[in-house]
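4.2 Preliminary Data

To establish feasibility before requesting continued support, the project team ran the inverse folding procedure on a target of 330 residues. The structure was first converted into the token representation described in Section 3, and no sequence information of any kind was made available to the design step. The complete token record follows.
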């Protein structure tokens, strides 16, 4: 598909270059022939002039002038053929460069669709299989039926979670322009904390945060989503009765927010991949830890749309600290 588009684009580029080249060559040839014509007329006039002051002037070879005219035409045709060959090569290269980002985007979208379908298939198959098994069982008791429904409900919740994450990620893939405004970062963190608090309470985890008045230039909803993802992970991957510490500082021309937990840490082999879509460490793949490996890729996209950066420091079985740099309000 891209090869065909590249060839079409090449043809268009060559056509444009050749139109310009032929236009200038024709103009040049016309000027040159007019000039030769003018010189010939002047010479003929001088030679036929009975009052010529220099009757013994040497004869000028008009034939040579006409030949030079032909010579100019020949050179121009040669130049245009050379341009055609070089323009063909250059246009093919440029067409490839023009299409490269589009090709990358299409490949990315295709991979996204493949990954998403793959992830959706697992809970859907599980739900379908348990319903089919239940329907085939002639002696299914009310209790068994309720268990089956409960299991199916869990699978459906998991599909719902995945669909929501995919939707959020898709929004960032399209790079739609978000409304940016001065946002009080502490307010956002407090809101995120209250959202994840029920989950933290279940594990007796406390979240420490000392609010301040720093502001960043950003989108409130997206920043809220960012802190919910990071706090949610910190709770998910921390043991019971531990502490999560959130800080916000203003080192120079940016805001530095950190979320530090006392959790399981991240393996060195997982570290380069944690921001990749659908990546989960082997430990997180156990069914008791919900998630699809989309949280950190969404977090990264949010930080990038805010012209910020996200980094991680981790020690196995000691804890993990995510640091986010965001630009302050101008
Ligand atoms: P999910 O949590 O759904 O698996 P994420 O994209 O949020 O997906 O995280 C990717 C992986 O990074 C997780 O599977 C986990 O292995 C690791 N990870 C993220 N946050 C933490 C954390 N605070 N502590 C330990 N591991 C983490």
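Position-by-position output of the design step:
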């Amino acid at each position: 598909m891209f090869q065909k588009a590249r060839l079409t684009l090449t043809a268009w580029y060559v056509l444009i270059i050749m139109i310009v080249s032929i236009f200038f060559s024709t103009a040049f040839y016309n000027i040159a022939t007019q000039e030769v014509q003018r010189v010939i007329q002047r010479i003929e006039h001088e030679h036929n002039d009975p009052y010529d002051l220099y009757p013994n002037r040497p004869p000028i070879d008009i034939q040579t002038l006409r030949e030079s005219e032909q010579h100019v035409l020949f050179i121009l045709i040669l130049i245009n053929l050379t341009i055609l060959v070089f323009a063909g090569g250059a246009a093919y290269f440029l067409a490839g460069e023009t299409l490269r980002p589009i090709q990358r985007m299409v490949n990315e979208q295709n991979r996204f669709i493949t990954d998403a379908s793959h992830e959706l298939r697992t809970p859907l198959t599980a739900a379908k299989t348990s319903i089919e098994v239940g329907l085939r069982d002639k002696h299914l008791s009310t209790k068994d039926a309720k268990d089956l429904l409960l299991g199916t409900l869990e699978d459906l919740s998991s599909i719902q979670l995945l669909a929501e994450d995919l939707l959020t990620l898709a929004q960032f893939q399209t790079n739609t322009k978000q409304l940016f405004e001065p946002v009080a970062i502490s307010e956002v963190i407090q809101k995120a904390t209250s959202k994840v608090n029920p989950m933290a309470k279940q594990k007796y985890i406390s979240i420490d945060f000392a609010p301040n008045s720093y502001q960043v230039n950003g989108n409130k909803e997206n920043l809220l989503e960012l802190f919910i993802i990071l706090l949610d992970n910190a709770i998910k991957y921390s043991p019971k009765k531990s502490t999560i510490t959130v800080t916000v500082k203003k080192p120079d021309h940016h805001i530095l927010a950190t979320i530090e937990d006392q959790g399981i840490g991240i393996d060195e082999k997982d570290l380069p991949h944690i921001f990749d879509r659908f990546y989960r460490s082997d430990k997180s793949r156990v069914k008791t830890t919900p998630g699809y490996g989309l949280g950190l890729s969404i977090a990264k996209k949010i930080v990038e749309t805010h012209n910020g950066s996200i980094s991680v420091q981790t020690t196995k079985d000691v804890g993990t600290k995510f640091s986010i740099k965001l630009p302050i309000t101008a």
